[in-house]
Amino acid sequence: MKKILLCAIATFCLLSVSTVQSALANTRLVGSGASFPAPLYSIWFQQFSRANSDIQVNYQSKGSGAGIRDFQNGVVDFAASDAAMSEEEIAAVEGGVQLLPMTAGEVVLAYNLQGVAELKLPREVYPAIFLGQIKKWNDPKIAEANPGVTLPDLDITVVTRADSSGTTYVFTKHLSTINEEFSNGPGTGKAINWPNDVKLVRSPKNDGVTATIKQTPGAIGYIEMGFARMARLAMAVLQNKEGEYVKAGKEGGMKALASVEIPEDMIVWASDPAGKDSYPIVTYTWMVFHKKYDDPKKADALRRMVEYCLDEGQKVSDRAGYIELPANVVERVREASKNIQ
Amino acid sequence: MPHHTDPNTAEAGSLSRPPSKGDILFDTSFRWMTLAFTWATIFLLGYIVFKIGGQALPAISQYGFKFLTTTTWDVNAGQFGILPEIWGTLYSSFLALIFGGFFGVSIAIFVTQDFLPKSVELVLKNLIELLAAIPSVVYGLWGIYVLIPIARPVAEVLHSTFGWVPFFSTSLSGPGMFPAAIVLSIMILPTVAAISQDALRSVPLKTKEAAFGMGTTRWEAILRVMLPTASGGIFGALVLGFGRALGETMALAMLVGNSNQISLSVFAPANTLAALLALNFPEAGPHEAAVLMYAACVLLLITLLVNIAGAALISFMGPGGRK
Predict the structure, then answer these.
(1) Mapped to the 3 state alphabet, what secondary structure does A104-159 carry?
(2) Which of A291, B116, B245, B291 would disulfide-bridge A96, Cβ 3.0–4.6 Å?
(3) What is the pLDDT of residue A181?
């Protein structure tokens, strides 16, 4: 009995010593926010922590709004948001905020129609589906754009996010830009009051929407491209500003990003990108930092983290379903990251 | 041990001894302790109501009664109404009660009325109680990946054949009232079955023997004698099951479709208060948080009323309770 007790005490002491040691050696960075880039961030932070054994990054994907709130309350060292930050939100943080676009994503319209491998959706059609004006898959307007494709006589089930979400913000901002009726009706926001006459199902998070589309014949919904790829869902080919049909993917995404100039505060929206090869629904997603940290070691670790994501991180973007940042943007972000002190 | 000099000393040698000072002290302190815990529970409940009510106050004063009777939930426009959620909460729980209640009571009869060998009875009883240990999220996933694909062909047949019945007036769009209610009924099954079993077991054996003595068949004895005698307890079980169904969150958030519409059709997507709260809190701003607290108050009130009614029924009408 005594022996066991001694052993237990010894183990306990050893354990606590080792934790104290690792706590001394490690800088722990805690972040929370957007679920949209979360799959990519988890790859980045894992690789970064492996390459820098003295820094541990812990990221929780809670949603953009929750991340910003955590950041304002000082619970986390950095946040991530798809909807950037509003002026009031920035003003509520003492000492200034540095937003850095870290990666970009494409919102795709994934659908579930057996036997329809490629579906072209014209610019006036997909907002109308989400407004409830086009209710059947064999609607003449859809058929017209897809000659040779047999479209079933099936109700369209629209799948949207049930929780407040940056993805919804990006998608509705795009719809509001290209369709006046949408902007006057549902409008732009992280949570939307979708019209009542739509056959509509809401699911929580990107994964929930993905699962619902996969399970529901006749469903269409908006999700981040990485999720659609992971679930092998068919993605609609969308018509862009110049009237061209562009597939979701690396080329269309990079072209779209290149069409917008990044301003001083690093917040920019490509809500309807120009250029005939641009995929129409792309967005940057940001990490949010303080301009001034009390602990210089922490600021240094954060800068190293950003540096890693800009260099090594971008290389895995495409594989994970995100768009690599164009080289000139990487330079701008690297420059701005010096403001983190 | 010190020698007592009170009048009871005469009996000191016999088996029955008066309680020692230690026993008395233990008894009284235990009684006070339980009393304190009871009051602490009541106080805690009051504190929760006070806290949530306090945070809901701005929304209550702004939206008032209209909050309960309107149907729009539009964060952008600042319009909030929870009638579809109240409807969905009550409707889904009611449907769950019909299925879960029927099966729960049937199971209770099956397990308690000597249909099975004692050992099988015990296994079955434990298996049903095990259902209560499955996490809500697992039920939700099971609903999405197993139940909905199974339910789809059934729903299509029902909709195309009985489309004129309001309950089947829309086609199933995947998540909706039907899968949510089925999963809910499985979730309340352990509660209903366990309490109904207790109620049936506490009917005195003599009652049943007397019924057999009168020449009833087994089923007559069960349906005409046992069930009516245990009815108070069974009714209480149903009310508690209903209360459990009202507050269920995660499985519903995943299965109900979260769509703000009021429809009698069981295949239409709907929404519930608990799902609304769970999905909207994480990103709610201060104003929306107050509105959600108001919705939480409404849910709390509905659940409290149902549970109080259930508890009252069990204690006043159930066998073994006060008659």
Answers:
(1) EEEEEEEECCCCCCCCEECCCHHHHHHHCCCCECCCHHHHHHCCCCCCCCCECEEE
(2) A291
(3) 93
Three-class DSSP category at A83: coil
CB contact under 8 A, A164 and B269: no
What is the model's pLDDT at position B208? Answer: 85
Question: Following DSSP, what letter does each residue of B165-193 receive, concatenated?
Answer: SGGG-S---SSSHHHHHHHHHHHHHHHHH
Query: Is the pLDDT assigned to residue A18 strictly greater than 50?
Result: no
CA angle B116, B121, B122 (to 5 degrees): 160
pLDDT at B207 (0 to 100): 87
pTM of the model: 0.80
First to last CA, chain B: 47
Q: What is the ipTM of this complex?
A: 0.76
Lowest-confidence pick of A107-111, B41-45, B235-239: B235-239
Residues contacting residue A267 through CB under 8 Å, at least 6 positions apart: A84, A85, A99, A286
Q: For chain A, which residues lie within 8 Å of any Cβ of chain B, measuring from their own Cβ?
A: 62-66, 155, 157, 162-165, 187-193, 196, 199-204, 208, 211-212, 215-216, 219
> Rounded CA gap, B97 and B101, in Å?
5
3-state SS, residue A187: coil
pLDDT number for residue A21: 44
Digit-coded pLDDT (tens) for A220-267: 999 999 889 989 999 999 999 999 999 998 889 988 988 888 888 888
Q: Which among B74, B79, B279 has CB closest to A163?
A: B279
- What is the SS3 assignment for A204-270? CHHHHHHHHHHHCCCEEEEEEHHHHHHCCCEECEEECCCCCEECCCHHHHHHHHHCCCCCCCCCCCC
3-state secondary structure of A17: helix
